[in-house]
Amino acid sequence: MIAVYGAGGIGCYVGGRLAATGSPVTFVGRARVAAEVAAHGLRLTDYLGADLRVPEVAFATSPSGAAGAELVLVTVKSAATAQAADELAGVLSPGAVVVSFQNGVRNAEVLRSRLPGRVVAGMVPFNVLNRGGGVFHQGTEGKLDVQRDAALAPYAEAFERAGLPVTQHDDILPVQWSKLLLNLNNPINALSNLPLRDELSQRAYRRCLAAAQAEALGLLAAAGIRPAQLLAVPMERFPAVLRLPDFLFRRVAGKVLAVDPLARTSMWEDLEAGRPTEVDYLNGEVVRLASSLGRTAPLNAKLVELIRAAESDRRSWSGPELLRELQR
Questions:
Q1: Residue of 30, 26, 3 lying closest to 101 (CA atoms)
Q2: Which residues contact 205 (CB under 8 A, 6 or more apart)?
Q3: How confident is the model at residue 256 (pLDDT cuts 50, 70, 90)?
Q4: Please, where are the H alpha helices in 41-169?
Q5: β-strands 42-46, 51-54: how paired?
Q6: What is the pLDDT of residues 283-316, one digit of tens each?
Q7: Is 92 helix (H, G, I), strand (E, B) or coil?
Q8: Are the C-beta atoms of 72 and 1 separated by less than 8 Å?
Q9: Phi then psi for 121, rounded to 5 degrees?
Q10: Is 104 left (phi over 0), alpha (psi -120 to 50) or beta?
Q11: Dist. CA 239–CA 203, nearest whole Å
Q12: Which helix (H) or strand (E) holds 319?
């Protein structure tokens, strides 16, 4: 059995595709999601036209739902990782394999420090939007990434069958940092209150992202970390591409804009729902890296500040307004 622990957007989508293609999956999550899934089942769609359904879903609202699982996919928000680990420690079967499919770069470390057995760091590169009524939609491309581990071999076929091929890496940290660099757009998208494609079509918003990424890249270079190349353009050159005028950007990086018109970030979704965001584990991670090097990261610190303010007082920022705020 596969258990998805923390079944929100990513968890319901990944676990749902596995369940829809024949894998035994139990979901563990909040009562709110359990009620939605009980009423509607799961429907998994993507930007390529996939449309899969799971009419009857095994969904638990207590940690005991993960008991007996051979593979546990942890998809809780980063702030809940320690609590999830403590809950799982009491129910995990001996020999169970745990995979962290979470944002950020330190969640697997937290799980390892609190769980027996094998913990594998992973990453979900694509965007998932909860459209309500049990519908979860993948709006951007990407394959699952994990640290290379022989313990995952028995599950490779199930992920392939689900349309979720897994790429294994000898060192996952550069991949995680590349994803984090892309996720520095999450607060910008959330503050814009626009779909991803509309936001990235506007140069002022892209300049905000370019500034945040350039700041982070300088710190990574100082720390001796070279991000993996996830896009056609190396991450070190991506800020320059983002700063291009709109007509040149469409020509040079049109694939960036070739995202589903429904796609938004999970941070936008959290703000809309009045939930705490993961900004401390994205832009806040850049601030922590700067502090460890005896430096500062004022642009990313400002984005953390703006999102924290938006968590209690929601407003939309135009591109020029946000750029001026970051340039102060």
A1: 3
A2: 188, 192, 199, 319, 322, 323
A3: low
A4: 81-89, 107-114, 156-161
A5: antiparallel
A6: 999 999 999 999 999 999 999 999 999 999 989 9
A7: coil
A8: no
A9: -80, 135
A10: left
A11: 12
A12: helix 319-327
Tokens for 236? 């070190």
Cα-atom radius of gyration of the chain, to the nearest Å? 19
The helix/strand/coil state of 6 is coil
Residue 308: how many other CB atoms lie within 10 Å:
16
Other beta carbons within 10 Å of 157: 10
Q: What residue has token string 């979901």?
A: 27
Torsion of CA 31, 103, 116, 66, to 10 degrees: 20
- Model confidence over 73-122: pLDDT tens digits? 999 999 999 999 999 999 998 889 999 999 999 999 999 999 988 999 99
Residue with token string 């430096």: 295
> In the block, which residue shows the tokens 């607060």?
187
Sequential DSSP letters for 213-259: HHHHHHHHHHHT------SSS-GGGHHHHHTS-HHHHHHHSHHHH-S
Neighbours of 218 (CB within 10 A): 14
Tally of residues, the chain = 328
